[in-house]
Amino acid sequence: MELNEKQIQSLVDTIVNIENEVGKAIIGQKDIVRQVLLSVLAGGNVLLEGVPGLGKTQLIKTLSKVMDLTFSRIQFTPDLMPADVVGTNIIVKGQSGETKFEFQKGPIFANLVLADEINRATPKTQSALLEAMQEQTVTVGKSTYSLAQPFLVLATQNPIEMEGTYPLPEAQMDRFLFKLNVEFPTFEELNEIMNITTKNANVELNKVVDGEQILEMRKIINEVPIAKAVQEYALKLVLATHPEIEGAPEASKKYIRFGASPRAAQAIIKTSRARALMEGRYNVSFADVKYVAYPALRHRFFLNFDAVADGITTDDLITELLEAVKIE
Question: pTM of the predicted model, to two decimals?
């Protein structure tokens, strides 16, 4: 598919319209909205981390309305079972009185699935999402069911809650394209939120795109060219998270226990293509790679005790790695 200026401009205009519509219901958080949009356009799952009440759920519900996508919310609790997520076979009576098994679909069968407080469910239930997040299918018994496209899991978790929670395993964290840290609003934003939420004000949201258009937009994004030097920079950035590799930066050797997987490189390349188009450009720049590096990497490598003792965060390390890896 050859990209032309008309296609690029149409896609940019559509994204701007989506952001404007979402902005009617979500005050502030412009960077978070943009990064969630990047994930939708790149076709990846998102983990939103932030204290309660910051509008994480509201953002996802708003996106589903603006994008005309089916929406499903699953409240994760310690007693939630895998069948409560994916569905189960139930016994039903046929017209002639015979009994048979029939699959009853669970809430996972939607375009946008909100996994609320995902770390409150047991590992057994968390694992029920793994196949859906990676293969976009659900297997129950001997039958495999394909999920409607586009399909995304948008999960939330509270960073300060420890009791009654089960940390997500590395394999599941790796299946999230982005991890986004939702910050507390500023005074002005908080004031505006109060003006909207404490009055009888209903926000009217217009549908901007639908599922088919999103899939078409993804095809266009996949055709965005990326120069060899830019792609190599992204790959070197991922390799720099591995302290055991020859030539790894000193910060990596000192503070990182385990490095990022190849999925990190895929995430950076896919989302940097989407970001280039969002900025109205025909090719991927080094700035695009640097922008998506934080949400794509912050959950994919693991710090050692020295990092914790020195108060070093994953974002601090990503900043150091971006400076250490040279652009050639």
Answer: 0.88
